Amino acid sequence: MKNKLTQEYLKECLDYDPETGILKWKKRPIEHFKRECDSKSWNTRYANKKAGCLNDGYLTVKVDGKRYYAHRIIYCLCHGYFPEHGIDHINRNRSDNRIENLREANQQCNLRNKSKHSNNKSGVTGVSWYKKANKWISNISANDKQINLGYYEIFNDAVKSRWEAEVKYNFPNCNSSSLAYNYLKENNLI
Q1: Average pLDDT, the chain
Q2: Could you tell me the fold of the domain covering 114-186?
Q3: CA–CA separation, 125 and 183 (whole Å)
Q4: Domain 7-105 is in which class?
């Protein structure tokens, strides 16, 4: 039986622990199923067990035959609605679904809070060594444009320019854990 996915319906299906971010299936009522035997079979198999499986780092949960991201379900359980835009994992850990780690965010904000690329050798997003100039280069993507922030002989200066650009383009409102900011803070440069 297909039911509208509402907070009320989800609360009939799932238990959520905000401390751990874990969803568990509840024993579901007969009304959730076409036949009574389906209810008994489902409850025997799933009730009181963790819900979902990992898919590209995100936990997904199948409710009534349709797959949903667990963080969206959790957001609805806690706030009563599915956000119009996306949900950002503040600490960048896709499977950390504690409600304190989830925030409503548009796509641009969500992209700004992504982890550094695996090929990043500098440790700071937007700062890299430019071999041809024998200098550090700093850049940022903002307003659908790649912006070159300059070439620097000193790594710290390149990182500072990146952080200043993040502030200018309003990244701190989205990115609570900027690699540029963290580097400068750890090295007492700000």
Answers
A1: 89
A2: GCC-box Binding Domain (3.30.730)
A3: 11
A4: alpha beta
